[in-house]
Amino acid sequence: MADDKTFTQAEMDSIIEGRLARERQKYADYDDLKEKASKYDEYQAQNKTELQKEKEKSDALQARLSALEKKDTVRQVREKAAKDTGVPVELLTGEDEETCKKQAEAIMKFAKPKSYPGTKGNRKKTTEYNSTDDAMREFAHQIFGKGE
Predict the structure, then answer these.
(1) What pLDDT is stored for residue 58 in this prediction?
(2) CA 20 to 30 Å from 11, out of 27, 53, 107, 141?
(3) pTM over 0.85, yes/no
């Protein structure tokens, strides 16, 4: 143990001070790096926000385009069904061809001219001349006037 060297307090302080100085020098730019890192994080967050905004805008436009395309397709289907069946397009509410055709058929079935019970059609020809018609016409003119 004769080789053990003893140090005075001043020597120990000098050794420790040198070691601390080297360590401080190693991390001297730590505050600058920390500041740069925080700025970078802010920039990334800002860009992410901008990117997110653009993505949301793009998604909204895509949804609107899809809705317009669907609306146009439905309009075309209704017009085709209306043209094929003769039913006004305004009466059709289906969104696919099958539904529109079923609706049109139901409307046509409902709108069919119905014959009323106890009525007879007019079988008299209009080109036929009848003298009693003239007499009746003259009588009506006398009662109601000629309508002039």
Answers:
(1) 96
(2) 27
(3) no
